[in-house]
Amino acid sequence: MSRGADPKATSCTRFSTAEATAETRDAGKLREKILTMETLNPHVKAVEYAVRGPIVIKAGDIERRLQQGVKQPFTEVIKANIGDAHAMGQQPITFLRQVVALCCFPELLDSPAFPDDAKQRAQRILQGCGGHSLGSYSASQGVECIRQDIAAYIEQRDQGIPADWNNIYLTTGASDGIMSILKLLVSGQGSSRTGVMIPIPQYPLYSAAISELEAVQINYYLDEANCWALDIGELRRAYRAAKQHCQPRVLCIINPGNPTGQVQSKKCIEEVLHFAYEENLFVMSDEVYQDNVYSPDCQFHSFKKVLYEMGPEYSSSVELASFHSTSKGYTGECGFRGGYMEILNMDPEVKAQLVKLLSVRLCPPVSGQAAMDVIVNPPRRHEASYTQFTKEKNSVLGALAEKAKMTEQILNSVPGMKCNPVQGAMYAFPQIFIPPRAVQEALSVAPDMLYCLKLLEETGICVVPGSGFGQQEGTYHFRMTILPSAEKLKVLLEKVRDFHLRFLQEYSPQEAPVRRTSQEHSET
Amino acid sequence: MSRGADPKATSCTRFSTAEATAETRDAGKLREKILTMETLNPHVKAVEYAVRGPIVIKAGDIERRLQQGVKQPFTEVIKANIGDAHAMGQQPITFLRQVVALCCFPELLDSPAFPDDAKQRAQRILQGCGGHSLGSYSASQGVECIRQDIAAYIEQRDQGIPADWNNIYLTTGASDGIMSILKLLVSGQGSSRTGVMIPIPQYPLYSAAISELEAVQINYYLDEANCWALDIGELRRAYRAAKQHCQPRVLCIINPGNPTGQVQSKKCIEEVLHFAYEENLFVMSDEVYQDNVYSPDCQFHSFKKVLYEMGPEYSSSVELASFHSTSKGYTGECGFRGGYMEILNMDPEVKAQLVKLLSVRLCPPVSGQAAMDVIVNPPRRHEASYTQFTKEKNSVLGALAEKAKMTEQILNSVPGMKCNPVQGAMYAFPQIFIPPRAVQEALSVAPDMLYCLKLLEETGICVVPGSGFGQQEGTYHFRMTILPSAEKLKVLLEKVRDFHLRFLQEYSPQEAPVRRTSQEHSET
Q1: What confidence category does residue B443 fall into, taking pLDDT thresholds of 50, 70 and 90?
Q2: Which of B19, B33, B104, B328 to mutate to test the interface with A (most CBs of A within 10 A)?
Q3: Fold of A98-376
Q4: Which burial class, exposed, middle or buried, applies to A454 when counting CB atoms under 10 A from its CB (0-12, 13-18, 19+)?
Q5: Are B330 and B396 contacting, i.e. CB atoms less than 8 angstroms apart?
Q6: pLDDT confidence bin for A57, thresholds 50/70/90
Q7: Do A49 and B356 count as a contact with CB atoms less than 8 A apart?
Q8: pTM higher than 0.80, yes or no?
Q9: So which domain of life are we looking at (chains A, B) (predicted)?
Q10: CB within 8 A of B244, min separation 6: which ones?
Q11: What is the CATH number of domain A50-88+394-523?
């Protein structure tokens, strides 16, 4: 692949371009690239990320063709593949944007168009920035006063359980934090290689990170028949099986669930933490949907709070990193790439290593840090922006709750489709019946990929096949967001229903579609 | 390290917290952590990043003590360790901040306080964002119209040599882009493991990334006696030596140099590209200081332009990634974490793999992308903001040029210190004579670390030891930024001079300090 050292090279200390060009013209034509699929880092090759995978690339192509005037059986592509609220028309929270704009252009601090509480927040943030500018690098862990605000927020959220701002690290979205912590934890070779337990279905950042870091992925299956609950017996099964070929050291939890939308009960979290304590597992709790709980009988419990309530034996020993983000909740500020992690019980020397690792990337985007600050320190009852802020927040969350309900209802009205309640997060993950003939036809692609491709081609609706998240063998799903406006979402769901009926018709003309046919698979 | 499977565990499917707490109380006390220095990812452990290393942590401690009222022989800590312009008092470019603030809070588009050209820029950027919001994820490669603006900028910069926006990728600062490209390139085991050629002295992101990715670092030494020029013979030597134990596949260049401040001549760039062509090396050219050229007899030439001027044999085959950033130049917007890379001649399949890899992190911060857009698409001659923009830009660059000169002059007036001209970038990297007695005393730390620690403790000035960047054995340096205001920089340099004289006195009372004593080392 390399041409190796050229014997001419040694004598040619100073070369002439023209001469060299003539000499290498023929060689040039035969040159192989240095970076090819053969020489590419194999761990990069192994990475898969369905949320922006082949189907989304295809959706982009179709969108471009539409723009160029190419006729399609629909007038727009609806990207229900990714939790990208603003792209679906959700409006930013005014107060958040006011604060960030003030930080960005402090001359506005003199403008009467901005409320005092927003100005005070901005001034406080700027005081924490080098040279009072959003343009300075922050400390690698983030702006100090923002870390303090986050700790205060966590304390309040967890009903007074103390939070130390020294344990808070700002991140570039939650993904960056998750990647950094996993990076620390991967070591060993062969059967002592780090195993990482992840839920199936999972958010594919986890499997992608595990591939990239060459860790061992340990699947524990969520219980679809039981609203995607986490079953402790299944955790034990997965752990024991994995112990044979790797060293399980990390347990990842997504609560509320992505793509599955379940909200874990306090009892379940206790069991998980007890299990992690027993088996010496580092717990990573992805809690980016902590503000997205819709079912009236569900409540968000942070892993940290539950850990503390289990007593000092647990709270002083279980190593826990929990993650939050500006991208979800009621703000949906994905583009700012803001987030934080709280890390408990980490060895102080390792903590120094983490800070060192983070310092190589210098700091998370400071405007994202500012956005995070507004989320953890929103207007208070007596402040000028309180009323508008509360109205906007409730409006977003109220609409999401209604859309969660509507999505579940419409999908469950479709023969051959079964959707668990969307208790939280922003996604429905219905199980779909795919007729055997379609399964046979799929061949080179996963049957649910075939399904989603056809859905896209026929309706312009872009969703992600369940195979991108993982699912019990023989079951098929897709993930769709509940983010389009209620009217649009209703149309979308009706289109999905009509498509599904056509699909069933096409592939099983003789066979009457039976509701929940494949549900048994996940009940085993 | 792991307690292993607990025999109780199997029977205890549903556990009681109180019971478990009592049972494990004693075990709890003896628990070992999961993540310790022993189990930490060894590649993370191997990472070093001097720019925010031990001396900067110490500077932070001293700063905190000062704030608490603890007396020190100085009244403030001056952080000349990092190219963080705003933290050193540089003011943001008004136009840039106006555009980003408008994007952030589009209600301001109706405000008469903002000029029309800024509004037009903001509207164009928002048109490119999903839902016309900075809060949407962009495509993994960045906002399309920003990529187009970048391509247009490169074309203009390179006197018409075409740039294709499909080759442009927005990044989270340049560091993120550099890391991503290196990640692709690392493969092979043993003597076929990827070797990465880096200049010595280097910016330690490179060595850190190489450690993290477990690639092989190949040092080529810049010629200190010749203004830190890159010598092609030295490249060949380093390549040949490395060939014995690894597969050199990547050649990294920093131009203008960091920490060394040299600006490469066109001839030198031609030689480097010819060498890369000959030896089949992927070229990574770090050009984040392309706007920071101060010497009247120097000019920035992009690797891309030179490659094209060498003719199609080269321009159609040499694989090249070049990097730019919002953090340097005349804007110094580090906190926005904006940047881009242009990638030439990459295998299309590998490109798809790159996009897949980037998509896992979703997108670079969109506000940073907006900042990057302003840099590549500044006000034009006929536009409202042109005069103020040009004044501000010239003021920053003019001041930097003066400070570059002053720094070189004052440092060269100090006996036992020798500083090459600061032709570009933002740093001086003087060689310092360290008396043998001080070298002996240093023992467990590098002698220049001892020097910098003492400088910090005695004067409050924080600079980074040369050992953090790499240097010829037996030579000692430090890197300092030229970013403080001219008045402050002058005081700082005088303090450095006085400290250096005291240091020489302390460690070599009998020996008259001889100017350039250790210079010979780098002339070998």
Answers
A1: confident
A2: B104
A3: Aspartate Aminotransferase; domain 2 (3.40.640)
A4: middle
A5: yes
A6: confident
A7: yes
A8: yes
A9: Eukaryota
A10: B191
A11: 3.90.1150.10
